[in-house]
Amino acid sequence: MDVEKMLSAAKLRNTHQRKVVLQLLIEKGSPLSHSEISSILTEPLDKVTLYRTLQTLTDAGIAHQVQGLDGAWRFCAHDPDSEGCPGDHPHFLCLHCGKMFCLTNQRLPRIEVTEGMSVEGKQLVVYGCCSECKTETEDKLK
After folding, report:
1. Fewer CB within 10 Å of terminal CB in the chain, N or C?
2. What are the tens digits of pLDDT across the range 27-45?
3. 95 SS3 class
4. What is the DSSP letter of 115?
5. How far is residue 60's CA from residue 125's CA, in Å, rounded to a whole number?
6. In whole angstroms, what is the distance from residue 103 CA to residue 91 CA?
7. CA–CA distance from 64 to each of 3, 58, 116, 139 (Å)?
């Protein structure tokens, strides 16, 4: 996934902040919150710049957001032509460790709405125990 090509295709200026944030979302491959992104970035961005950058990437369709159990929004890179998060799919949230994963091999169902209405977005978050936490729990029981 080429960050500069994604920004260009989305008709966005190729700013340093956008490149850094989008590259991080691509590399991590799972939804990240504002605070997680801030703590991972090697070059810290001020809070307002980070919020605006994420909103711009989301509005342009090259990132999408999903809300976690804690109410925090998390963001993924969105590139349907590559290995990144393809967008219209469910997410899995581990109730034990709090990690969120993209379930990219599945799609959200088509939603029919009443005439005169339009769907602006949809999300599905499945809650449970991830494989790492499940293994740890099983090991403790042995």
Report:
1. C
2. 988 899 999 999 999 888 9
3. coil
4. T
5. 23
6. 5
7. 15, 5, 25, 36
Q: What is the pLDDT of residues 112-122, one digit of tens each?
A: 788 888 877 77
- Number of C-alpha atoms within 13 angstroms, CB side, residue 124? 12
> Parallel, antiparallel, or unpaired: how do β-strands 91-94 and 100-102 relate?
antiparallel
Kindly state the tokens that stand for 79: 């590139």
Lowest mean pLDDT of 36-50, 55-69, 84-98, name the range.
84-98
Q: Which domain covers residue 16, as residue numbers? A: 3-141
Please give the model's pTM, rounded to 2 decimal places.
0.78
Q: Do the Cβ atoms of 130 and 99 come closer than 8 Å?
A: yes
Any idea how long the chain is?
Answer: 142
DSSP 135: H
Cα(108)–Cα(123) distance, integer angstroms? 8
